[in-house]
Design goal:
The model has no long low-confidence stretch (mean pLDDT 88). The protein is built from twelve helices and four strands. The N and C termini lie far apart (55 Å). By secondary structure, it is mostly helical. The chain has one domain. The protein has a two-stranded antiparallel ribbon.
Length: 365
Amino acid sequence: MIDLNHITPFIGAFLVAAAFSAIGLPLVVRVCRYFNSYDLPNGRKVHKFPIPRLGGVIFMPAAALGLCLALYYLEGAHHRIEISISTIAMGVGSLMIYLIGILDDIIGIKAIHKFVIQGFSALLLPLCGLLITDLNGIFGIHEIPFWVGYPLTVLLIMTIVNAINLIDGIDGLASGLCILILSAYTYVFAINDHAIIASLNAAIVGSLFIFFCFNVFGKVGRAKIFMGDAGSLFLGYVCAYMSIKSLMRPIAPVDCGEKQMLISVTLLLIPVMDVARVAIQRWLTGHDIFEADKTHIHHLFMATGMSMHGALIAILTCFFVICGINYTLWQTHFVLPLILLADAFIYFFVVNTLLHIAKKEENET
């Protein structure tokens, strides 16, 4: 358990990042108005009015400021501070992702070009040792060779980055999910004595909490703002880093690696399953997998007649339900492959139910 005397850097990082965001977001809104930088409504998007879209630019500086405070406290408390090369690589990669997201929000960039930059950013982490080398006995597989682990790691990073980016389709969804995901990783790294990474997560959560309030409860034309690609790509990259880092030893030693893998799978299940389903569906129907449409899970919920906030609540509820089911199955000694199978069944049952209800609603109208 976490010693209450040792959570000060996490609380401090959270509060500083939150305060910075609370001050900075209204300024970002004003800048967007001045430069006429809006996310305009169209047939694919669900909002009906132009909304400022650069809210995500606040995440990285807020996280950096919160982390700096945590490092200052940890150094003063004579805590051993070790910044690994993979952490530095994550900083460089996230900066690349962050900058390409800002450019896309301001001038627009083709999806394939963003995909290439994501690829370069994803390549950094395995080069610096952040590499999946052990599947912890899933399907009877333990250690895997470098030539398998490297592309698998890169593929996983790019999948998670795009999953978070593409699920950012309604108010509060990407930020709400990432608050839950990164809060869980704050705990995971804190209890494993990785105070720096835990503080980084806490800082991002603090910034996200303030953004969530602006995004969900802010009034159109006043405080309401979208995170844009600068925010969603940055968050996706951070989530990818945390998911893989949490599988590395000593955080996930041999005797509990499968448990930690289950945690990462559970936390990222909804966005990753959604992006995989949509990509496969587009490919099977002969569409460009980068082509924007209205087939993501939030669109399916809204197609049943739900409001945007109703869809948000429903998806966040699904997140907690999946966490509860997976925890129960694990406690009753189900192996990870069976839990993954149960998750896939639940996900596609929900999707098929939504499609059935939406079709029924369409026929009745």
